[in-house]
Design brief:
Length: 183
């Protein structure tokens, strides 16, 4: 088979944004992608500059008085980093639009980290006057998000619990219970 560049399909490069990361598009044909549980991914886009990016954070912000410094695990750090990196690529904060995904509460009976993360993202964006165009947060299911940073389009798919691997029970070794005969 011969390769004809005129009929070749230019597939986008898939960039995976992992927990604790920020990625701002380069202007090339890229799709940013991530998988979320209780984490949040915020996709920001400036439609005039045609620049966008995504972050993926684990926790909203350190507890007051904890002595913990905000780092790549915290939304407060990664939101600022995303905005600043977009501005270095020509984005203007007053034109930015947001899409927010994730924030599921994956395990019943545990701290509702997903709710806290979603609340933080909404409040942060409101304080920065960045409108949220699309949001899919909460629930109990994981999500896969794809984002086109040039066009500002997103696709969010819920991963149904039946598609997730079932937890495997751990069998504890028996600790005695038998008779011992001494010689």
């Amino acid at each position: 088979m011969f390769h004809n560049p005129e009929t070749a399909i230019n597939l986008p490069q898939r960039i995976t944004v992992m927990q604790g990361q920020v990625y701002v598009g380069t202007g090339a044909n890229e799709i940013l992608t991530t998988v979320l549980g209780s984490c949040i991914a915020c996709c920001l886009y400036d439609p005039l500059a045609r620049v966008g990016g995504m972050n993926h954070f684990l926790l909203a912000e350190p507890s007051p008085g904890s002595g913990t410094v905000a780092d790549q695990n915290y939304g407060i750090y990664l939101m600022e980093l995303l905005i600043n990196q977009m501005m270095t690529r020509g984005g203007v904060k007053s034109r930015m639009k947001a899409h927010v995904y994730g924030g599921a509460n994956m395990h019943v009976g545990m701290t509702r980290i997903g709710d806290a993360n979603a609340r933080f993202a909404k409040n942060f964006l409101a304080e920065e006057t960045i409108p949220i165009l699309r949001m899919d947060v909460g629930g109990e299911s994981a999500r896969r998000v794809d984002f086109d940073p040039v066009m500002g389009r997103t696709r969010c798919r819920t991963v149904e619990p039946v598609a997730a691997p079932a937890p495997k029970p751990v069998v504890a070794p028996q600790t005695g219970g038998g008779e011992v005969e001494l010689f």
